[in-house]
Hints:
By secondary structure, the chain is α+β, with helices and mostly antiparallel strands. Helix content is about 50%, strand content about 10%. About 30% of the residues are buried.
Amino acid sequence: MAKYVSQLTPPEIKSLEREIGAFVEQPGAGKTRALRIGIERGLYIIVDKRGANSAAWQYRYMHRGKSRSAGLGPWPTVTVKRAAEKADAMRRILKDERRDPLDMRRAEEARERAEELTTRTFRQVAEDYIRSHQSGWGTEHLDQWQKSLAKWAYPLIGSLPVRDIDTDVVKRVLTQPAEGGRFWDTVTKTASRVRGRLEDVLGYAAAEGLRSTDNPATWRGRLEHSLPAPGKVAKVESFAALAWEDLPTFMAKLRVAPGESARALEVAMLTAVRSSELRLARVGEFDLARANWTIPAERMKNGTVHVVPLSARVVDILRTQIPDGTTPDALAFALPERKLRDALAAVAGKGLTVHGTCRATFRSWCAAHGVAHDLAEAALGHAIRDKTVAAYQRDAMLERRRRLAESYARWCDGEGGNVSGLAAA
């Protein structure tokens, strides 16, 4: 009478393992091979066509006249003894309960999955959403998502099952106390962004089957009836910027100001980049021979690579700032944000912001001089939704943007900026 694995001695088990190992390792890639473990009815080692690394246990049986196959796990992670125990458990179900063990296993897995889905918390789902989308985001955008939810959402609803979040819960987040009043009324811009992020996370949860498709964080048709429109609560705040007409006077003072901070601010203004894009710039991003600066996608707000053409003045600054032999991974300007603010205040006094002076001033200058809208937007590194237009701007607009950069630099030097050929077609 044949023995079951449970009845084998340790030497007999080792012998069986050697037999399995020899079968798995034998040549034969390109086709599926099966070894029946003869002492255990219906137990097989299956090696599929990918080769030895794909060996797995399988239990084959008949139920109501139909042949069934149940996977028992990979070999050798699942040992001979463990595979036999799993097969024996299925065999007892067939014999004692007259039920299909594979159907029972699948039903149990479905119950476990359903239980997991109904207990997933808002924070868990939000973190899943962020992980699944962050490859298309810039570092700044990712940071904003994480910090805003950590501050305004997780303390109130992070531990709630995502299935239980309704309109009242969303309103509780948006109307929670903040300095000076309600969150929605006093930090309206941030609150509006948090609402949009709640909507995105809850929409993702519905797509994953974690809740109903009804989204309680949508504005139109739902929250618009419960909360005042953001534009009516607080005026839209702009970053305080320098008037473009004052650029020559300002830049003349900035140019003679000493220190690395002043040079960094000058580069930021002449390239119209965000301060974080400059402060985190690595030496290897600059190609001074071609007068290009390539900002990687992970540091851009829109998550796409941004090539910045450099004016002659910027190249001169960078040649001085970056000594020969500097490693490509070194920061070109190792400065905190406050150093740029201090440099700006030293020249213009308090009241202006670095972002406004570097970007809004440039955009106002473009508008006043008739620079084409799409050209100015490309220079600022703003996202272009139309993929065809985006490809054109990336490939064909670089030289036009280079001329724009030189024209802006000449204006800042007090020489006047020639923008002929840079207007809308």
